[in-house]
Specification:
Blueprint: H1 5-8, H2 28-33, H3 40-51, H4 57-65, H5 83-97, H6 102-111, H7 115-130, H8 133-139, H9 150-155, H10 163-168, E1 172-173, E2 181-185, H11 190-194, H12 196-208, E3 211-214, H13 224-228, H14 232-247, E4 253-256, H15 259-265, H16 277-286, E5 289-291, H17 292-299, E6 302-304, E7 310-314, H18 318-323, H19 328-335, E8 340-342, H20 358-361, H21 363-380, E9 384-387, H22 390-403, E10 408-411, H23 412-418, E11 421-423
Parallel strand pairs: 2-3, 2-4, 4-5, 7-8, 7-9, 9-10
Antiparallel strand pairs: 1-3, 6-11
Helix pairs in contact: 3-4, 3-5, 4-5, 12-23, 14-16, 17-19, 21-22
Length: 425
């Protein structure tokens, strides 16, 4: 662990920013908040001032916590500023100076990294839905008394599978020998808990493409939520556990279906000092990380049989687009579905406002950003929204509900399965 404030803030990287302003039109918070301190260059300048003792960490807190971390600024920066590293360094320093709470410690140290806790959450939500408690709660407005606007997000949750379905999942699947590829599937924590069926559909797509699919036993949370809240050391430990888990077999691909998780996985090598053993192991891990859309396009083993008469627009995950640099593959797959008309957004690069837990802890700001996104969605005239990340999925469902639109949001994987994919060979 580095000791000096300048090192922890990645002070040396702030000098790459020449304050040119190219980032301003790309930044959602600058557009909606209209403050220089809520722009990338403004935040970088503030980080520099804190490192030089000209401003306090308290001055840094609000501008950094209001940042979505969408990394749109990095796609337009002419000097290749490593904003992500500066941002995480600032988050870390802020986290170090605030008091700890038992609930927070439980969530980040025990809850998210635990498959058992994630399954418990999924099963409890299933019981809540199936028992009729959800309908009663919504009828009498009971969930409106919960903090953090939980009632709005709760209403957007998909139907959960029961405990029997979760227990029935195997650790290894194969239908074709020799397999076209051996895939290690990164199931995620929230993704596997809340979007279990989407994970199962991902496995089905891979199997029909001719791949062998394995769930490494030792995998855990990717660490994105930890890093985004300044808990860098915990994020590093989770990265080590995942690297070890996926080293046990020689996978051709390490596949994920959540833009936020995938972005964290491809950044593992940056978390370790060059020349160290962990850096080398992380680089080998990162070389095999792929989004599901990339693998389906590379394997090219599916033909979609069912015609779906609908128009859709695609809302790309910021982290899939800006960090993983996956842009064309999801669009390619959507266009392969017979009967589907794709109407692209005018500003696909504009964040939806989800950003991990941003829409929960910064609700009003997130809704301002979502309003801009929904104007774009409405302008397409599409009858549905396709997403590629669980946070985006829930946020877009919330946006559709707020606008009173007769459409739904669906994960790309679920749309592909609905189109009845069949093996080409």
């Amino acid at each position: 662990m580095t000791n000096s404030l300048k090192e922890r803030l990645n002070y040396d990287k702030t000098f790459d920013c020449v304050q040119c302003g190219y980032c301003l039109p790309a930044c959602p918070t600058y557009e909606t908040m209209e403050k220089e301190t809520h722009s990338p260059r403004g935040r970088i300048n503030l980080v520099k001032m804190v490192a030089e003792g000209k401003a306090s960490v308290e001055d840094l807190k609000e501008p950094i916590e209001k940042c979505l971390g969408c990394m749109a600024c990095t796609t337009v920066c002419p000097t290749n500023v490593q904003y992500g590293e500066i941002f995480e360094g600032a988050k870390r320093v802020i986290d170090e100076e605030r008091p700890r709470g038992l609930v927070e410690d439980f969530l980040f140290q025990s809850f998210f990294p635990s498959s058992k806790w994630m399954n418990t959450l999924g099963n409890a939500t299933w019981l809540y839905q199936k028992s009729g408690l959800q309908k009663v709660s919504q009828r009498f407005g009971l969930t409106k008394r919960a903090p953090l606007r939980i009632h709005e997000f709760e209403a957007a949750l998909p139907s959960m599978p029961g405990p029997r379905n979760r227990r029935a999942r195997a650790d290894r699947y194969v239908r074709k020998r020799p397999a076209a590829a051996k895939v290690g599937f990164f199931k995620g924590c929230v993704m596997d808990s809340v979007f279990f069926e989407t994970n199962q559909n991902t496995v089905e797509l891979l199997l029909r493409s001719g791949a062998e699919v394995v769930f490494p036993e030792g995998q855990t949370c990717c660490g994105a939520l930890h890093a985004h809240t300044g808990k860098v050391d915990q994020s590093i430990e989770l990265a080590k556990r995942n690297i070890e888990a996926f080293e046990e077999e020689g996978f051709d691909y390490i596949v994920n279906n959540a833009g936020g998780c995938g972005a964290r996985l491809v950044e593992y090598a940056h978390m370790f000092d060059e020349g160290t053993e962990w850096h080398e192991r992380a680089e080998r891990f990162v070389d095999r990380v792929r989004d599901i859309s990339e693998v389906l396009v590379e394997l090219d083993g599916l033909v979609f049989e069912k015609e779906l008469e609908r128009t859709v627009t695609y809302q790309p995950s910021c982290h899939l687009r800006n960090v993983q640099k996956v842009t064309s593959e999801p669009l390619d797959l959507i266009r392969r579905i017979p009967g589907v008309e794709l109407r692209e957004l005018e500003r696909p690069e504009f964040c939806c406002g989800s950003a991990g837990v941003y829409n929960i802890v910064n609700y009003e700001d997130a809704m301002d950003i979502l309003n801009v996104k929904m104007q774009d969605v409405c302008g397409t005239g599409a009858g549905g929204v396709v997403t590629s990340n669980p946070g985006c999925h829930l946020q877009m469902k919330l946006g559709v509900e707020r606008e009173g639109l007769g459409m739904d949001a669906v994960h790309l994987v679920d749309l592909l399965v609905e189109a009845d994919p069949r093996p080409k060979w």
